[in-house]
Design brief:
Shape: globular
CATH superfamily of the largest domain: CoaB-like
CATH class of the largest domain: Alpha Beta
CATH architecture of the largest domain: 3-Layer(aba) Sandwich
Radius of gyration: 24 Å
Low-confidence stretches: none
CATH topology of the largest domain: Rossmann fold
Number of strands: 19
Length: 409
């Protein structure tokens, strides 16, 4: 077994009884070049991945028992005067830089939500003061079960970070949300956090994300296909660097990252008001939301009934949030704008950038054949005041692209 490497950050890797547990060996191998990895295996996890495989991949013994190495307290010992030897695990948790549970089962999410501590991993999760991340993996019906949804909401509000799950083909043969994030992506996020933490400490970052919704009547609205994934990835990337992040978000189905301030809005007017209210206190402003350009001139207070001959809706322009931000921009502020185009991407994005010369303009193709809306992937063209030619980022996960964008910032 390897000796501890104090120069490397320390990661506690929890492995639970999810069908994706076999990928923990690959994940350990991806983490090991930049971190000291200490595996913690639950009883259910041990039925799916061999201890020896995890030990060989990490170079350290696998912890499985809460009482492993414990010294019984002699009868009659006064309280507080006997040093228990269970503490090797606890001592390590004190100095861990990250606790990563990957994969995390529905059962383990429930334990975390309730604060249960009936085994070694759940106890360490309660004890550790460093960030706690989970990479869930389960059947789509389990992921969308009301109990799991409620547990996710509870954990999100506590600041726990979710890596995935992604949508796709599942081990059970079904298709949908619940797919384990790729080990290379989890390792990338861990490395980004461990390498960049504190880099932006003291900086205040304002991010907008998601779509806006403009009411037509109490049951109908004008909106768009934005999922909010790019904006949420940018907010998380700024958190990785230690920034104080405010996220102004339209309606999405995503779990918000543990930002300092979460501001939920629906309409473009509401987003406009909340952004301008917080603009002067921000060092970096990232305008990733897909804001509706138009709204109904007069929304109906009651449901519009079906009529012969159809219905005419009169539209008016919404406020241009990016333009107003640029008009109020201070010298030392950095503003990142976004452009979603269905055709002539470079030409249309360049025209927008000339009208609204933000420090960076990030453009992507959407619609048929596009990669932007409601996808985990994107392909970007970035215009920068510091570069003569646009920068092209090939198709990649939005979480990785978010890091690249912030590198340019």
């Amino acid at each position: 077994m390897s000796k501890p490497s104090p120069q490397k950050p320390r990661v506690l890797l929890g492995v639970t009884g999810s069908i994706a547990a076999y990928k923990a060996v690959e994940l350990t191998q991806k983490l090991k070049p930049f971190a000291e990895v200490r595996p913690v295996l639950t009883h259910a996890g041990s039925r799916l991945v061999p201890e020896k495989a995890l030990a060989k991949a990490s170079g350290f013994p696998v912890w499985t028992s809460l009482f492993e190495g414990a010294t019984p307290i002699p009868p009659g010992t006064p309280g507080g005067s006997h040093p228990l030897a269970v503490v090797p695990h606890i001592e390590y948790a004190k100095s861990a830089d990250l606790v990563l549970v990957a994969p995390a089962s529905a059962d383990f999410l429930a334990k975390l939500a309730l604060g249960l501590a009936d085994d070694l991993l759940s106890t360490l999760c309660l004890y550790a003061t460093c960030p706690l991340w989970v990479a869930p993996a389960m059947n789509v019906k389990m992921w969308n079960h009301p109990a799991v949804v409620q547990n996710r909401e509870i954990l999100g509000k506590r600041g726990l970070r979710f890596l995935g799950p992604y949508s796709g083909h599942l081990a059970c043969g079904e298709v949908g949300d619940g797919r384990f994030a790729e080990p290379s992506e989890i390792a990338f996020q861990a490395q980004s956090y461990l390498n960049h933490r504190g880099q932006w400490r003291g900086r205040k970052v304002l991010v907008t994300a998601g779509p806006t919704q403009e009411p037509i009547d109490p049951v109908r609205m004008i909106t768009n296909r934005s999922s909010g994934k790019m904006g949420y990835a940018l907010a998380q990337a700024a958190l990785n660097r230690g920034a104080e992040v405010t996220l102004v978000t339209g309606p999405t189905r995503l779990i918000p990252p543990p930002v300092a301030r979460l501001v939920q809005v629906e309409t473009a007017d509401e987003m406009h008001r909340e952004v301008l209210r917080r603009l002067s206190a921000s060092d970096v402003v990232v305008m990733a939301a897909a804001v509706s350009d138009y709204r109904i001139t007069q929304a109906s207070p009651i449901k519009i009934k079906k009529r012969k001959g159809g219905v005419t809706l009169r539209l008016e322009k919404n406020p241009d949030i990016l333009a107003d931000v640029l008009r109020r921009k201070k010298t030392l502020q950095t503003v990142v704008g976004f452009a979603a185009e269905t055709d002539r991407l470079e030409e249309n994005a360049l025209a927008k950038w000339k009208r609204k010369p933000c420090d960076l303009l990030v453009a992507n193709r959407v619609g048929k054949g596009g990669r932007g809306f409601d996808s985990d992937l994107n392909e970007l063209l970035v215009f920068s005041l510091k570069h003569k030619r646009p920068i092209r980022f090939k198709k990649d996960l939005k979480s990785r692209l978010a890091e690249k964008i912030l590198d340019l910032v």
